[in-house]
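Checklist before submission:
- one chain only
- standard amino acids only
- sequence pasted in full

Submission:
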Amino acid sequence: MLRLPDSWVWDFWIVEDEGTYHAFFLYASRALHHPDLRHRRAAVGHAISTDLVSWERVKDALVHGSPPSFDQTATWTGSVVRGDDGRWYMFYTGSTLADEGQLVQQIGLATSDDLFTWVKHDRNPVVSADPRWYAPMGGPAPWQDEHWRDPWVMADPDGDGWHMLITARSNDGPLDERGVIGHARSKDLLEWTVQPPLTAPGAGFGQLEVPQVENVDGRWVLVFNCLGNEFSRSRASAGSTGGVFAARAESALGPYDIAGATALTDESLYVGKLVRDPSGRWVFLAFVNRDANGDFDGVINDPAPVRWDGDTLVVDHADRQAALAN
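Returned file contents:
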């Protein structure tokens, strides 16, 4: 379990290098007293592990920039890949508070030779929302902010460059279900071209947060997150609960069955990640969003195995309950 005595921990992303797992995570001081205040105080911490259970905190990876930087308010969720040149590339969300009190979200880049020391790219941001397909800032409540965050970067399965999947909102469709997976492409991890979204609005989700695509035991799956208060009215009225979701996928780039996505967890856990453990087995980690008392806990739980039950990806129930009890 990754717990900080003085800070809340929430969204995270993990990369493995030569047997060591590197977890990069958002954190903010518990001196804020209320966890809802953490988002605009977020920095990117760093911890290492050899088993995904015991973690050693090391020096922070990133902090927010100074005005007029695109990340002057906070640094948010991202992902890390190793480029063809052997360097590490971290793509992360930068947020800026606009004059209207709304947040502009854009994607930035930092690079590292060793995963410990990170330098922000001198031409940040590298990816911004394209209004041809994506909703700009200033929309109706409660979606006034510009939603363009949580970049998940992966190599093209056919070797044709790189893809970035992004939490985004469509500029079309019912307001309460405009959540889509945004898309951008690159040949070199530096220059990016925004593409139309990989999914369509209308699947019942106001947003599809922190996407991740993996091939688990021969089957592609898209993992995303959505709280119940961000569902469409129709999905909420059907009695669905929020949490971490898995959508079947025909390939790494879809199509994804968003409307048929099934819950991996309820809202007690959030921002679920699929990772291979040291044995090569796929496991699931998430942060504790609600503890036994219903309070925000702000720790990353121990891994639990995942498996396919027919066409449905599930987290092993017994292991998950044991993890929640720790």
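Reviewer check: The first strand starts at residue 7 and ends at 17.
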